[in-house]
Write a structure and sequence with these properties.
The termini are far apart. The longest helix is centred in the last third of the chain and has 11 residues, at 211-221. The chain has five helices and 15 strands. The protein is of the alpha+beta class. The relative contact order is 0.11. A five-stranded antiparallel β-sheet has the order 2-1-5-4-3. The protein has a five-stranded antiparallel β-sheet with strand order 10-9-8-12-11. Strands 13-14-15 form a three-stranded antiparallel β-sheet. Helices cover 17% and strands 37% of the residues.
Length: 223
């Protein structure tokens, strides 16, 4: 794909997207340009392969505009992407993607924040406010909402809850854990630039921050 027109295209894009939105341009397989923002940075480098599951990959595959939330498993950071394939004579030349941090996602696309989550107890369903939840974990195919009063099964997957909940309150720190930031008591260094969290529940539950999430975790919490 010719790249000489990229600056002009980005100048035009900059007039219609808000501040804080990152921009990525790819050919059919690899990124050729990336402009990060202060709000979100996927750490893309020109020459990087377009990963499966990304908004860019979806648009190239579907050959049409895609607007979708992308899980943190793709880049280590969840984001909302709007991708438009670039066509010439009916052939795909590449793709341009606007990358939003979740708080900046277009309002009509943002998911409603639940006031309560339903947890299944032994013989009933219990409405739980997000503030009551210390952490959310995936265990043996089930999603568990951990509170001071025990763990309750929820119908949604960890990835679904990550999209639904306020990213300023719940942070993904491991493929199996979401934690309530307000419920963290201590952050301890661990092996290979990772961390261990001690939570504020009476059991002082310890939660790992895995290497793939450690950098983003530090960025979000500011340390």
């Amino acid at each position: 794909m010719e790249t000489r027109w990229i600056p002009e295209v980005l100048r035009m894009v900059g007039e219609i997207v808000p501040d804080g939105v990152s921009i990525a341009v790819s050919d059919r397989q690899r990124y050729v340009y990336y402009q990060p923002s202060d709000w979100i940075d996927l750490k893309i480098k020109p020459g990087d392969q377009v990963p499966k599951g990304s908004a860019t990959y979806q648009a190239l595959t579907a050959r049409q505009k895609v607007a979708d939330y992308v899980e943190s498993s793709v880049f280590g950071v969840p984001y909302y992407g709007v991708s438009v394939p670039l066509l010439r004579n009916g052939q795909i030349e590449g793709c341009i993607t606007a990358i939003y941090a979740r708080p900046l996602a277009p309002a009509n696309e943002a998911p409603a924040r639940p006031r309560v989550l339903i947890g299944r107890g032994e013989d009933c369903w219990i409405p739980l406010s997000p503030a009551e939840i210390v952490l959310i974990r995936s265990h043996q195919g089930r999603t568990l909402l951990q509170t001071e009063n025990g763990a309750f099964v929820n119908r949604y997957s960890l990835n679904q809850l990550e999209r639904m909940l306020d990213p300023g309150q719940f942070v993904r720190c491991h493929r199996s854990y979401l934690v309530n930031i307000a419920a963290i008591r201590r952050i301890e260094p661990h092996f290979h630039s990772t961390f261990l969290l001690e939570m504020k529940d009476s059991q002082r539950t310890r939660v790992p921050v895995s290497q793939s999430y450690a950098s983003r975790f530090r960025e979000l919490l500011g340390f």
